[in-house]
User: Fold these one by one.
Assistant:
Number 1:
Amino acid sequence: MSSSQSLCLKKFQATATKVSVHMILRFDGMRSWLLTYKRLDDGIAITDGWKRVVDDLGFKLGCLLVFTPFESYVDFMLTAFNVDFRVVCQS
């Protein structure tokens, strides 16, 4: 397993504010990125900042943020604090 593939298995944590459309994505508690997103009926769409995460961590485009477990997506929409994500990359 390459290092970029193993990174895909690690958890991220995101913190967002209730009133804005910004999310801080943290990786291993050491690195962080500010993402801009919009809420959709069935999820969120990151509108700015994801390319920096992809570039910094050596992912390829096509990698997705996935809420882990899915219930944390509901928590994110309701409380918008400290939600775990994982990154899934298409092979």
Number 2:
Amino acid sequence: MTGRLHSLADRVHELGLAINTNIVTLGFAILNSLMKLLPKRSRQQQFPTSHKQSKK
């Protein structure tokens, strides 16, 4: 019975590690996307009129 409990605990632990790894990966992906968006926004705020003129 102890072996069955330990194997179940090992599986639960592996599942927790897999979920944690996916959360960290998703967090880095979101952070990377935000870092790509931030410089574009700051450039648009610095030169809003030149950006509008280039569209015409």
Number 3:
Amino acid sequence: MMFIWIIIVLLVYHMYKNNESLSINTRKQDSSMEVLKQRYVKGEINDDDYERMKKILQE
């Protein structure tokens, strides 16, 4: 019986860690997109550069 509980705890832990790493990657991509948008609004990059970089970030 104890073995089953250990398996359950390990599965929950594994699922939590995978979800955490996915959310970190999503946050990094979101912040990169925000920086790109800010640079575009400030006029630091032109339309072509914005679209090219946006496409790269969305891959």
Number 4:
Amino acid sequence: MVISEEYSFDKRIDNKEKLNDVIKEIKSMNDVDKEIFLRKFYLDQSSKIISEKMGLKDKFINLRIFRGRKKLQKKFNIGE
């Protein structure tokens, strides 16, 4: 049990550090991309709602999300 508890604790710490790194990377994005990411992944808004609120086209929102996710995946070696 002790080993399992230590592993679980270490895994939570590691996940928290990774999350902080991702948040830091999102904060370094330009203002438009940052707002899109916060609305999409923090506020759980649809691309349609984001486009209406920001006065941008749906396709633009989806493209920025796609490119931003790709950049994050490359930076953190995720999904390759």
